[in-house]
Amino acid sequence: MCRTKTTPAGHTLSPISSSATSHSTSKMAARSPNKLFEFTKLIGQLKTIPRTGWVYRNIKKPESVADHMYRMAVLAFLIEDKKLNKDRCIKLALIHDMAECIVGDIAPSDNISKEEKHRQEKEAMKYLTDLLSEDVRKEIYELWEEYEYQSSPEAKLVKELDQCEMILQAYEYEMSEKSPGRLQEFFDSTKGKFNHPEVMQLVKSLNETRNSEIEGDSKEEHRQQGRLNTDEQ
């Protein structure tokens, strides 16, 4: 028996096994005769699967997994480091969360171990890539493993871009909601994780701008409190 999985925002994913933590490829829905069409339908779900961290923080319009990967890919395109294979970085950015079209965006607060998360995503990637021709199948699966095991300089750079894009998005939500500093936990979670000079410079610019916004908001609150105290006297 198969059932569907629903994300925190109520988005229904592709069929998965009846076990709450198992996504065995043998129990997934029967493949479409047109495998490429089936693959494109599955990855198309990434455009509507919300990023779980934002859902849990009650963000009104949380970005999708595809939104996240798109900006990561653009950031990879903008890297100027000649020691890195830029094309490989872009591919890694586009593939690193691909399994989430089947398993969803598993967040740390879901209380699923890293080992179990990896197992589920590995089975999902095997299912996905099995829909493709041999050469493409091998390339995509190996790129996913490269990122998972952080086995190359390019994979390490893309991991930093993953964290960088997350706090960029957190900052944008703070600004759109007029709540500077509300998503501080996301920034705290990235401390000490940036090592590439270009990423560090971008993060530095972000933090300087954000800290200025937080300071300005704090000063405005003090001014308003001062006026209230004066009125009460």
UniProtKB/TrEMBL annotation:
- Enzyme Commission number(s): 3.1.3.89
Keywords from UniProt, A to Z, are: Hydrolase, Magnesium, Metal-binding
Q: Which SMART domains match?
A: HDc (SM00471)
**One Pfam family recorded for the sequence:** HD_3
The prosthetic group or cofactor this protein requires is:
Co(2+); Mg(2+); Mn(2+)
Q: Where is the composition biased (Low complexity)?
A: 12-26
Q: Which family does it belong to?
A: Belongs to the HDDC2 family.
Q: How does it assemble?
A: Homodimer.
Question: What function does the entry list?
Answer: Catalyzes the dephosphorylation of the nucleoside 5'-monophosphates deoxyadenosine monophosphate (dAMP), deoxycytidine monophosphate (dCMP), deoxyguanosine monophosphate (dGMP) and deoxythymidine monophosphate (dTMP).
Q: What is this protein called?
A: 5'-deoxynucleotidase HDDC2
